[in-house]
UniProtKB/TrEMBL annotation:
Residues 7-217 form the DNA/pantothenate metabolism flavoprotein C-terminal domain. This is Coenzyme A biosynthesis bifunctional protein CoaBC. GO terms for cellular component: phosphopantothenoylcysteine decarboxylase complex. Pathway: Cofactor biosynthesis; coenzyme A biosynthesis; CoA from (R)-pantothenate: step 3/5; Cofactor biosynthesis; coenzyme A biosynthesis; CoA from (R)-pantothenate: step 2/5. It catalyses: (R)-4'-phosphopantothenate + L-cysteine + CTP = N-[(R)-4-phosphopantothenoyl]-L-cysteine + CMP + diphosphate + H(+); N-[(R)-4-phosphopantothenoyl]-L-cysteine + H(+) = (R)-4'-phosphopantetheine + CO2. Keywords: Decarboxylase, Flavoprotein, FMN, Ligase, Lyase, Magnesium, Metal-binding, Multifunctional enzyme. Its EC number is 4.1.1.36, 6.3.2.5. GO terms for biological process: coenzyme A biosynthetic process; pantothenate catabolic process. The lineage of its organism: Bacteria, Pseudomonadati, Pseudomonadota, Alphaproteobacteria, Sphingomonadales. It comes from Pelagerythrobacter marensis. Its cofactor is FMN; Mg(2+). The chain holds residues 203 to 427 of 427 of the full protein. Catalyzes two sequential steps in the biosynthesis of coenzyme A. In the first step cysteine is conjugated to 4'-phosphopantothenate to form 4-phosphopantothenoylcysteine. In the second step the latter compound is decarboxylated to form 4'-phosphopantotheine.
Amino acid sequence: PDHRPLYGRHVLVTAGPTHEPIDPVRYIANRSSGKQGFAIAAAAAEAGARVTLVAGPVALETPHGVDRIDVESAREMAEAVDGALPADVAIMVAAVADWRTRDVAGQKMKKARSGLPELVLAENPDILAGLAAGEARPGLLIGFAAETENVVDNAKAKRERKDADWIVANDVSGERQDSVMGGDHNLAHIVTAAGVETLDRMPKTELARALMARVAQHLEPDDSE
Ligand code: C5P
């Protein structure tokens, strides 16, 4: 038998940015690299889970043993997440765009002498909050939060507002900004109903393993071996 701690579990992970189209060649995006989410998917697979990774546009290889679904926009991501349910654990690491353009031009927009084009925005669905409120709510629902100030307090508020079980808060302030967004290291606080655990700054791959160890422990609290 497979004794790995997450054997038999389905873990759903989102990662990367989303691209919100403006016209056939232009989009709105953000600086998320997808590294932390991919590391978490890899760590979950290592721990024996069946893993579905819903990935925005990133230049990363699929981790071994992971089922990957590529998407572009937030709405596509929401649909792929929905289609991947049910899941025992969902970890929403993606930096989902808050807004999309309300209308997508069918043809490449042209420079006009008559003035500038105006982009009208519309709000994207909140995938994490939607999962929390949905009928197939995963047993353990984990969000990520990138914060530049009041990191822990904002994460606590976010945990309650979105009805997530845990929020992993990343400090992306000041000089850390370079290293966290796009870099290979992370500094995280894990905010749960029980309290806050602050981890050392460590490689994203290690943070992923540390998080999966806590997930496994949470799912089987009596399994002390
Ligand atoms: O509100 P904020 O974007 O900081 O929340 C971060 C958490 O919510 C992350 O886990 C992110 O993946 C998730 N989220 C989402 N859908 C959105 C916005 C955020 O799933 N539209």
